[in-house]
Amino acid sequence: MKHVARKRFGQNFLHDDQVLADIIAAIAPAPGDTMVEIGPGLAAMTDLLLKSLPHMHVVELDRDLVARLEKRFPAERLTVHAGDALKFDFGTLPVPEGRKLRVVGNLPYNISSPLLFHLATFAPQVEDQHFMLQKEVVERMVAEPGTKAYGRLSVMLQWRYRMALMFIVPPEAFDPPPKVESAIVRMIPIAAPLACDEATLSAVVQKAFSQRRKVIRNCLAGMFTEQQILDAGIDPGTRPETVSMESYVTLANSLRERGGA
Question: Where is the major localization of this protein (predicted)?
Answer without folding.
Answer: cytoplasm
